[in-house]
Design brief:
The structure is a single chain. The protein has three helices and eight strands. With 118 residues, it is α+β, with helices and mostly antiparallel strands. The protein has one domain: START domain (Alpha-D-Glucose-1,6-Bisphosphate, Chain A, domain 4). Strands 1-2-8-7-6-5-4-3 form an eight-stranded antiparallel sheet. A hairpin with a 2-residue loop joins strand 1 and strand 2. Helix 1 crosses helix 2. It is globular. The protein starts with a strand and ends with a strand. The relative contact order is 0.21.
């Protein structure tokens, strides 16, 4: 779904995943998973409310593409491992791209939602 608000475009993505809450949690929060499936970015979380989220490029990506170490940063708004994670993030190489994402594994389905603005 895409919506227009003033001059900004917002897109909302919802994905339902058939996996255990722990498997999804690990895929989002464990650096070895995010490096493999998240564009080479290693995730670092302080999972307390107001905690920091950072995504760092791997050394290989830094050398190959000449990018700075820090790729994304954000804030953990809510965390209840492994069932719920609400966070913000912004892409540092393009400050106009930012998003808020949430994982809700409280019911039978696992819902991952991301809302971005650019």
């Amino acid at each position: 779904m895409t919506t227009m608000t003033g001059t900004k475009t917002s897109q909302v993505y919802r994905v339902y995943i058939r996996a255990t809450p722990q498997a999804i949690w690990d895929a989002i929060t464990k650096p070895e998973w995010t490096e493999k499936y998240g564009y080479g970015v290693l995730a670092e979380y302080d999972l307390s409310p107001g905690g920091r989220y950072q995504g760092r490029w791997s050394e290989e990506v830094q050398k190959e593409h000449g990018v700075p170490e820090l790729a994304v940063e954000g804030e953990v708004l809510e965390a209840d491992p492994p069932r719920k994670l609400v966070q913000t993030w912004r892409l540092l190489m393009d400050p106009d791209i930012a998003a808020k994402g949430s994982l809700d594994s409280s019911g039978k389905s696992r819902k991952l939602t991301a809302a971005s603005r650019s």
